[in-house]
Automatic annotation (TrEMBL):
This is BlaI/MecI/CopY family transcriptional regulator. Keywords: DNA-binding, Transcription, Transcription regulation. One of its GO terms (molecular function) is DNA binding. It comes from Maribellus luteus. It comes from the Bacteria. Belongs to the BlaI transcriptional regulatory family.
Amino acid sequence: MKKLTQKEEEIMNFFWDRGPMFVKELKELYAGQKLHYNTLSTMVRALEEKGFIDHEQFGNTYRYFAAVTKEEYSKTTLGSVVKKYFDNSYKNVVSLLVEEENLSLDDLKKLIEEIENQQNNPQ
């Protein structure tokens, strides 16, 4: 899966949060910004080319919707970060979180408990 630019991710968050929209509705979410309709339309079509968005036709206009869930994108993004910065080791990620005190001992115990429960009760 391709990586999103910051602006593309912002647009995708609107689709993930609000569901299907016409470009006109998306533009209304940028009311305080001077973002031209054609620029936004081009960005949406680029997201469609990348496979993140799809559309359904209503007459001569399109209503766009997310073709990839936020969870699917998050997993892919996390995986690439772990691969690139942590030698493909989730253990190294957790170690850093513990060292930086972003993950408490209680949180770590709960995480271990969840992993053990998943291993004992596979779905």
